[in-house]
Amino acid sequence: MKIYSLVIISALLSFKSFGIQKYNDDIKNRPYFQLQGIHLDITSAIFIMDFSISSDFEIYKTHIQTFGLQPGYSYLIAGDASATEYGSPFQDINLLAYSSIGYDKPITTQLLIGYAYRISSKSYAKEYPVSGLKYGISFIFNLNKYFKIYVKYSALSSSASYGMSAVGLGFSFGWSR
Questions:
Q1: Rounded-to-integer distance, Cα 21 and Cα 16, Å
Q2: To bridge 56 with a disulfide, which of 37, 104, 156, 170 should be the other Cys (CB 3.0-4.6 Å)?
């Protein structure tokens, strides 16, 4: 009786492990919605500072690429050597789609595109609030799961006479799955 029990248990375990492997492969190729991370990003260049907090919701994943949504908030300070730029500082509320290439590699490339609503902190800036297409690219150096250094460019295409862009070197830290 013990031998039959061992044979049946080992057969069930081997069938179950093969079944789980096939099931995971099927899930990987189907759309889903899962929180992947919450992060605080600080980007700086000469006369530009961008502070943002956002969440990454993964929707689809392939072997080397992920796709998802990134809602977030940005606080952008821009100017030149003499004074701040017209309307600066700005506050952006973002809903962006992203595609990350090399998400589990030391260097990740991330493309962003989506909608942003920009508010000026200055009351005299009558052009604001505006909304428009926000787009960008980042080259991310993954130091570990929670800390990353990146080079970033992002811009907002809107009806405002001046299209403020953020470019710079920054760092990101936060929670990641």
A1: 9
A2: 37
Flag whether pLDDT at 2 surpasses 60. no
Dump pLDDT digits (tens) for 139-161: 999 998 889 999 999 988 887 76
pLDDT tens by residue, 20-43: 334 344 445 678 888 888 999 999
Q: Measure the CA–CA gap between 156 and 44, rounded to whole angstroms.
A: 17
What would the pLDDT profile of 37-78 be if each residue is shown by its tens digit? 899 999 988 778 899 999 999 999 988 899 999 999 999 988
Cα dihedral 6/9/12/17 (nearest 10): -100
Domain boundaries along the sequence of the chain: 1-30, 31-176
How many Cβ atoms from other residues are within 10 Å of residue 63's Cβ?
6
Whether domain 31-176 has CATH 3.40.50.300: the reply is: no
Q: How many degrees, rounded to 5, is the angle at CA 29 between CA 27 and CA 32?
A: 65
